[in-house]
Amino acid sequence: MTLSLPISDGANELVSRSPLALLIAMLLDQQVPFEKAFSSPYELAQRLGHEPTAEELADYDPEALVAVFSQRPALHRFPRTMAGRVQELGRVIVDRYGGDASQVWATAATGAELAGRLAELPGFGAYKAQITMALLGKQLGVRPEGWREAAGRFGEEGSHYSVADITDAASLAAVREHKKQAKAAAKARA
Description:
mainly alpha; 11 helices; Endonuclease III, domain 1; 0% strand
C-alpha cells in the first residue's frame, strides 16, 4: 500500500516504502506543519545523498547530524533537539529490532503490544503511539488484533483527527478544521 499524503511524490514514496522514514516523520510531526514533518525524511536522504539506515543514524557523529538538520531550510523548527531524537530512534531500532524498523509492528501480536512498542520510541508517547497505530492500520494495512481499540479515537473509521486520516488536500483541511475547533473549545473552557 502507498500513502497518498499531500506532499511531494518523492516524500510520499519514501514514507510509504521505508518504515524508518515513516517513524522519523511521525517523530518530527510536532510543532511544525504536517507537510514539513513528512517531507523531512526525504530531505534528509537528499542531503546525505542516500537513504540512511538505522545503524547509520545511530552511529552518526551527533554534531554532524545537527549540521545536516540545521542546513537551510532546517529539517525542523528545533533541529538540534530533533537530530538527537532521530539518532536515539536509530539506536532503539538497532538495539531492539536488529536495525529493521518494520519489526516494530511486524512482530507485534496485538494492537496493545504495538501501542506499547510505539509509545516507548524516543519522541513518541501514548498519544503519538495511537496516531501512528491509526496511520498504520488505516493507510498501510497493519492491523494486529485489537488495533482500532488500541488506537483509541484515532482508529475510528471516518474520523478527521490526525495524520492517520489525511489522504489528500480535502482531508488535510478537515483535520486542520477539527484541530482548530478543538483548540477553540479548550480555550473557551479555560
